[in-house]
């Protein structure tokens, strides 16, 4: 059974481990080794993961008492953005990603109209998952320039 709960500061190390394990597998062949090591250092440092828990919304998925996936959302310029959604390679395609996404939407403040995310161009597995779950072209986005490697997607709530 998959359960989803809010992450607490005690979960920092395990949540971080989900990123450190999943990123290199998911992004090998899509981006450079440098993009992966820079991204892990910037977005998966203990401090960054702790900020996501204390200042944003971070949820974890639990299967047989193991944390097997996480989702991280934050606010930027009035938009809610799902910055992270990662399921350990051995637990993908079991419904964990969907359970985390459903939990994330439930955790948003009542009245939130749109959920944004950024995804790597070429990450077809993820893009297919997002399309199937109602994400498409956003109506509007924060001003931040994502560069050539990432695109915005959005779901109307
Ligand atoms: C993308 C990701 C978050 C999706 O999570 P997931 O747990 O694999 O997703 P789900 O199991 O809920 O759904 C994935 C697929 O499995 C299918 N599925 C769900 N339960 C299933 C089951 N019991 N048996 C077979 N297939 C199943 C779903 O229909 C879905 O099909 P689709 O890929 O054709 O849309 C996950 O694969 C992942 O972490 N990937 C690597 C990292 C990544 O790219 N993250 C996104 C960054 S933006």
UniProtKB/TrEMBL annotation:
Cross-referenced PROSITE patterns: GNAT
Domain (N-acetyltransferase): residue spans on this chain: 2-157
Keyword RNA-binding: no
Keywords assigned: Acyltransferase, Transferase
InterPro entries, per the entry: Acyl_CoA_acyltransferase, Bact_Acetyltransf, GNAT_dom
Protein name as it appears in the record: N-acetyltransferase domain-containing protein
Organism name: Kribbella ginsengisoli
């Amino acid at each position: 059974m998959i359960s989803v709960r809010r992450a607490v500061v005690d979960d920092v190390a395990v949540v971080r481990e989900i990123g450190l394990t999943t990123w290199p597998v998911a992004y090998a062949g899509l981006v450079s080794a440098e993009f992966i090591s820079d991204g892990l250092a910037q977005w998966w440092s203990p401090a960054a993961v702790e900020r996501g828990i204390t200042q944003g919304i971070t949820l974890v998925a639990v299967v047989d008492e193991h944390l097997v996936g996480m989702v991280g959302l934050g606010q930027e310029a009035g938009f809610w953005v799902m910055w992270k959604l990662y399921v350990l390679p051995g637990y993908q395609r079991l419904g964990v990603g969907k359970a985390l996404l459903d939990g994330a939407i439930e955790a948003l403040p009542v009245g939130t109209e749109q959920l944004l995310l950024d995804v790597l161009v070429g990450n077809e597995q993820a893009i297919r998952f997002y399309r199937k779950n109602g994400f498409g072209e956003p109506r509007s986005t924060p001003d931040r320039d994502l560069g050539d490697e990432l695109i915005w997607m959005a779901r109307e709530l």
